[in-house]
Structures are given as structure tokens and as C-alpha cells.
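Exercise (ungraded).
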Amino acid sequence: MIDRMKRMQADLEHLPHLHRMGALFSETVLVKVDGQEFYLVFDKGRIAQLLEGPSKKTPYRFGLITDGAALTEFWTATPKPGFHDIFAMVRIGRAEIIGDMLLLVKNLRFLKEVLALPRARHEVIK
Amino acid sequence: MSIEQITGRYLCVEVAGRQQRIYFEEAGQGRPVLCLHTAGSDTRQWRHILNDPEITAENRIIAFDMPWHGKSLPPEGFMTQEYLLTTEAYMETVLAVIRGLGLERPVLAGVSMGGRIALQLAVHHPEVFSGFLAIEASDFQPAWYDIDWFHRPDAHGGEMGAALVSTNISPYAPEAERANTMWMFMQSGPGVFRGDLSFYTQDDSLVGALHRIDTAKTPVHFIVGAYDFTCTPDDARRTAAQVAGATLSVMEEVGHFPMSEHPAGFRPFFIEGLARMPKAEIGA
């Protein structure tokens, strides 16, 4: 899982349109997968740091809690219905979103695109 | 170079005592089929059906922008008005367009909130129509989001709305059409998506009324996408089960905006739905 997260961080570096879209987003986001914590520390649309938990001292604004099987399906090119989107995963009971929901929604397009970066169709040509 | 077959004009008509300038597009000839867009969007969602030579060979496809949407301006005085769509205003608008264009018992094809109002019209004004295609349509859907998110002074409601509705776009949708579908939401006027959602998520007046539809006189066919998490296939089935004689098809690779997000995936289901509707009357 950490390899996927690192790949997401690296791919984001090569996508200037996401840097523009996330230029005002400098917050920490928790992604918790099968109980394992990952803190994505964003700075102006880039993932400046990727921290592994567990941590009770890392403040975050909102978080996505899910399981590895759901996230793996989410990252396929054509996920099954319900696994194709973080809100859809919430709707089918395979994810939970915690924290400042309004802040998430204000930056939703940016964050959805970042979280979907590991998908096959978003492979970055370097 | 090419010029598409779609033509666009404006209909100036009074709706519920207010003058409205309504933009509509059409293509084809034969049986009239009036198409309704979703919340927060406009007639461009129907661009592929309007440009389909096979469908328009025997059907006059017409789509219009609801007031406040697309190229239909809001009514005079809108700057001090809060836009909140109601069932009554929506039904009256559809009926006014039909009267204004002189349509003889069209098929009504509505998607999402358009599907909801199609069902309302099937209950309250069936005599005006020959049949109904209720697409991504249900009797009632409470919000799983806060509709006030989409009209705020500190955020772009259109971009937020587009990002939210992308939840309901299929991964099988071509990237270009996914983007086009989201763009229309991004262009929506301030507060318009919120005002549409107010109708869609708070008006439950259709609940308990669907048994009044007589499908022997006006057939009702439901079409729903498996990737729709606003109106799921189960929501559509629940609704269709209340309409005796209604039929239903599930599109396995399509979401909530079928005609716009995945035209090739939607096309055979739309053609199948049209085939279930009465043929054009002679002279119509």
C-alpha cells in the first residue's frame, strides 16, 4: 500500500494542472486502510510529505477510512459499481469519510483526481 | 468541417404568470420526443441523441433549457430571487413548452429530476403525452449531501457540483464525454443546482401516487445505470414496481447522465425505450 501511496505522490509531481487546481490546498489528509494510517501532507497542490502511522499527534483535516480490497478495486481501470468513487464507496458501506467535510467538498475535484492517480488509465508518461 | 443537424431557437412563453424566454434545440422529423435535462445542466446533455441520424429519421427530438439553465435566462427580477424549483412550476414549464411548440402527444424522456417530473406528469397530465421514458428516475431521493454546499460565497458551486456528480459517472464513460458532462455543471448559474436539488431531494409528493398511472394508455419505461449512486437500480426498481405494467432496463456500464457521459452505452437502451412507445399518429 505504501508503494501505491508513494507512486501517487510521485505522479502528482508531473501533473501541473493538478498543481493549479490544488494551489490553495495545503492541508493534511488521513487515508486509513485496514487500520494502517497514511498521512498525505499537501502543500500547494503537491504531496510534500507522506507519513506512515500510527500517530496520535498528526493533525488532519479530514480522512478516508476504507479497506485494502476496496481500494485495490477502486484503483482498477474499470472498478465495479460502488468502487469507482470515494463517495460511492461510502454509499455501499466500504468507506467512511471523517473530519471537515466542507473542506473536502471545496477541494473535491482536486482530491478525487489525486486519489485516483494509481488507476491504470492515469499512468503518467515520464 | 461539418455542420451538425441540430437547430436552436427561442420560445417566448408565459409560465405561471411570468414571461420566460426558453431555448430549445431540435432535430429530425416524425414522432415528437421531448427530452429533459438533469439538475444543474442543460440541453447539451442530449447532443448525441439530437445528432443521431437513425433516431432522428423517425423521431423529432426536442430538448429545451429550463429557465435559469443553459441559454434560457432567468425571469425578470431574478437578482433578488432565490431559485427553488417546485413540482408545480416544473410541470407548468413542460406543458407550456408543449403548447408553445404545438407538439401533439409527445413521448416525454426525462433524466434524473427530468425523470421525476416525467413521472409526475404521467400521474397528473397523462392525456398530453403518448408515453414516458423515465431515465435515472425514482419516486423520491433524500440527499446524501448538503445542498447548501453548492451555493456559497467562498467556493465555486459549479466546480463543487461537478466533482460531486462525478460520483455517478461510469468508469466506462469516454474521458472526453466525462469531461463535457462535468463542464456543464461547472457552467451552471449560481444557486441553480442547489435550487434543482431542493426539488429533487425534498419534494416527496410522488410517493404514493404512482399507482394512478395507467400504462395501457401511456406506457412507462424505466432506464437506469448501474453506476448511478443517486438513483440506483434498486431505487428505479422500487419505483417501477409501483407502476403497474411499467418496464425497466438496467445499463451495466452507464451512470446517472447516460446520454451525455456514455452516448454509445446509452444509445441501444434509448432506442429500445422508444420502440416501447406508441408510434407517431398519422398526421402528427
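Further reading is listed at the end of the chapter. For now, observe: The beta strands of chain A are 28-33, 36-43, 46-52, 62-66, 95-99. The longest helix of chain A spans residues 2-13.
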